[in-house]
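lol ok so funny story. i was supposed to be doing the assay writeup but got distracted and ended up predicting the structure for this chain instead. priorities right. anyway since i did it might as well share w the group, maybe its usefull for someone
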Amino acid sequence: MTRRESENGNKRHLSSVALVRRLLRENVRHYFGWLVLALVGMAVMAGATALSAWLMEPVVNEVFIAKKRETLWLISSVVLATFAVKGAANYAQATLVSYVGLRIIADNQTRLYAHLQRMDLAFFQSRPTGTLISRFTVDIALMRAAVSNALTGFGKDALSLVGLIVVMFVQDVRLALIAFLVFPVAVIPIVRLGRRMRRVSTDTQVEMGQFTTLLQQTFQGARLVKAYAMESYELGHVRTIVERIFKLTLKSARTRALSSPIMETLGGLAVALVIVYGGLRVIDADMDPGSFFSFITALLLAYEPMKRLANLNASLQEGLAGAQRLFAVLDTVPAITERPGASALALREGSVRLEGVRFAYGSAAPTLDGVTLEVPAGRSVALVGASGAGKSTILNLIPRFYDVGEGAVIIDGVDVRDATFASLYANIALVSQEVTLFDDTVRANIAYGRAAASEDEIVAAARAAGADGFIRELADGYDTVVGEQGTRLSGGQRQRLAIARAILKNAPILLLDEATSALDTESERHVQAAMKKLTRGRTTLVIAHRLSTVIDADLIYVIERGRVAESGTHAQLLGAGGAYARLHALQFAEDGAAAPV
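and the output, tada:
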């Protein structure tokens, strides 16, 4: 099953009423005061609209039929004032509604980002990045449009319609009943169109998320795409998904447009009936021309807000589809949470111990199967073994990126699940083989996590990591912007910045996941020297494929298929002639030169 099919299959449609209630409760109610002011403006505008229709009666009767000059000037002045008030009220309500709508976008984007920051790594690994990004852009924008349109529709259009209906009933009850006899017929097809719009909109948003993911992957992997001449292949992917989006968008436009012929036909029928019946009454002198023209004006003015209200359901359903997808993410509970009553981790020594740890990624086979090992305080311990043996998983369990299935991870006698996240992260520094750099300056990337660090501290950390030399050769030195994921730097340069970041953090526990894997021999020599100084007196857990980098470790654990195969110092393990000795012989088979396993 593809990701798209999986996401479509997991959709859970909530009722429109439930979604609207939640939108009002979690978003709109915070701006109740602003909305009251907007509704006042809408009410004034509706009153001015109704008054302009009512003024048609004295215009026809007093000016065109009775030909009173003094009435002409008075009515003209009232009409001018009415339209001026209507314009001012429309400006006020439109500005206030826009403010509320834009604040809802900003609030939800901040709220969503804050929620995602609390999610565990498994959440991000199970969802395409583009799909999450589309929540911030497409879904929240549709929510904002729905809220704004709903406020405008139920406020300005509904109030204007009520005011015009009052004018029509005041002028003639029987004509009003005839005019509105046909409109209830439109309710059923309009509701059905709204339901269809919600389904189409949901599918479109899913496709947009997939499209964003595809663009992100191909742009970030542009080097690989070109190297393997896969431009045409990726273009085919883009064409396919763009075509799906085109068809869904066209279907949405057709569905939305269907309300127009329904309302146009019914509106024309209502006006024709009123003209026939009203015209006969005027001819028979049963109704004066001024009242008839006032009624017709009110009816024609009521047509536009009525048509907008008919289209409102389609727009609202689009927004509710976006709201449902947003709420689905906000309602996702992190798998790893801070326990109630968790205490701050205050390190005395800094020892780390895994006791009988079992762990599996989802429903897959166990990655770790009863691992027990210890990293003594202030010592350097290495994990070696083939790829996929479970070394990185052990590293990820210590800062609680994942939680153990069985057993425990203990730091200074405290289960990491009983410690606060802030205190746990404050005591651990991590350098991974997958370097993460932000599109910011070299200085900002080194100081990430210690924004208050001084210039001298930043430079000292860079020197310790063997990075100061190449940094000063960059165009702007420490002020050089490294690009997204450090694309303007070499792999070794990126690695050394990550090491400098960990050095600057100065945490008592160091986790090094092949921290020197991307360095050349000369750079590695400098960094290894810096690492010896850095790790002195600190608890260090190192993962390395090149055994030459861990020969001096105080203790080495060999991990095979999720278990500890053997442990000891370099000399002890070589003398045992087991798994470590085989790895060592393999790597140093040719002239003593280390090579990756």
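The chain has 22 helices and ten strands. Strands lie at 352-359, 368-375, 380-384, 406-411, 414-415, 428-431, 509-513, 539-543, 555-560, 563-568.
back to the writeup now i swear
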